[in-house]
């Protein structure tokens, strides 16, 4: 009876060790596989950090450009205002000249010479205010 | 007995690496989100710059148009009107010029 029990125990121990060998191999293979994945993730992380630094530089550059353009727009505002005034003044003069050309030959001659005309596609109120002149 | 030890060590290593892998994945996802945020920010800046460039272009067109009127067409028209007014003693043209503060002066 004792011999039988001893044999059974030895057999169980051997079976247990036989299971441990493939288990160890599988665990080791899995560890190697996961380590390779970790290594790949590390490379990706380094690449993304490099991209983040580049994007940071790009953002700084774009923010500077935006700031400069805002300043440029502000700087030109007075010039734009002056231009609008000049344009409005000449537009009014040329519009009056076109009106005068209906009844006055001299005015008609000047209008014809410079091909001054009202904008065709503009609405009636606007077309009177924006004549086009070609020297 | 040693095979048990090897098996336990290999399993522990696998578990440890799995945890490391999870942490690295989480870290990479965060980095990815950060990149996306930066790209969104760049897009916002680019749109703003595009809008500003259009604004500058519109300003330039207005300035050019006014400059052409003030330096080329306008003075020529006024000179011709002044000449016609003097030559033909045209009162209508004279009053038109006076309306804009322009006096006809004979050369």
Plain-language structure description:
The complex is a heterodimer of chains A (135) and B (107). Chain A is mainly alpha-helical and 135 residues long. Chain A has one domain (34-132). Chain A contains 3 helices and 2 strands. In chain A, strands 1-2 form a two-stranded antiparallel ribbon. In chain A, helix 1 packs antiparallel against helix 2 (105-113). The N and C termini of chain A lie far apart (127 Å). The model of chain A is unreliable at 122-129 (pLDDT under 50). Chain B has one domain. Chain B has 2 helices and no strands. Chain B has helices at 2-88, 91-99. Chain B is rod-shaped and about 125 Å long. At the A-B interface, helix 1 and helix 2 of A face helix 1 and helix 2 of B.
* Gyration radius from CA atoms of chain A, angstroms: 44 Å
> How many structurally independent domains of chain A?
1
What is the total domain count of chain B? 1
- Flag low-confidence runs of chain A: 122-129
Q: How many helices of chain A does DSSP assign?
A: 3
Features:
heterodimer, A: 135 residues, mainly alpha, two-stranded antiparallel ribbon, 3 helices, 2 strands, B: 107 residues, 2 helices, 0% strand
Topology of helices and strands:
The complex is a heterodimer of chains A (135) and B (107).
Chain A: H1 2-101, H2 105-113, E1 117-118, H3 124-129, E2 131-132
Antiparallel strand pairs in A: 1-2
Helix pairs in contact in A: 1-2
Chain B: H1 2-88, H2 91-99
């Amino acid at each position: 009876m004792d011999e039988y029990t001893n044999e059974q125990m030895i057999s169980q121990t051997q079976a247990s060790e036989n299971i441990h060998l493939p288990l160890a191999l599988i665990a080791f293979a899995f560890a190697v596989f996961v380590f390779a994945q970790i290594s790949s993730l590390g490379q990706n992380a380094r690449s993304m950090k490099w991209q983040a630094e580049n994007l940071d530089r790009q953002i700084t550059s774009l923010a500077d450009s935006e700031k400069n353009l805002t300043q440029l727009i502000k700087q030109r505002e007075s010039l734009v205002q002056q231009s609008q005034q000049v344009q409005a003044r000449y537009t009014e003069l040329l519009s009056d000249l076109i009106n005068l050309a209906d009844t006055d030959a001299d005015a008609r001659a000047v209008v014809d010479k410079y091909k001054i005309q009202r904008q065709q596609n503009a609405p009636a109120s606007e077309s009177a205010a924006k004549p086009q002149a070609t020297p | 007995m040693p095979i048990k030890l090897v098996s336990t060590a290999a399993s522990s290593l696998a578990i440890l690496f799995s945890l490391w892998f999870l942490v690295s994945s989480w870290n990479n996802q965060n980095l990815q989100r950060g990149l996306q945020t930066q790209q969104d920010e760049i897009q916002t800046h680019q749109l703003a710059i595009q809008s500003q460039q259009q604004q500058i272009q519109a300003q330039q067109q207005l300035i050019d148009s006014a400059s052409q009127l003030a330096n080329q067409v306008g003075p020529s028209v006024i000179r011709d009107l002044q000449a016609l007014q003097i030559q033909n003693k045209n009162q209508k043209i004279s009053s038109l010029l006076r309306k804009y503060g322009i006096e006809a002066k004979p050369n």
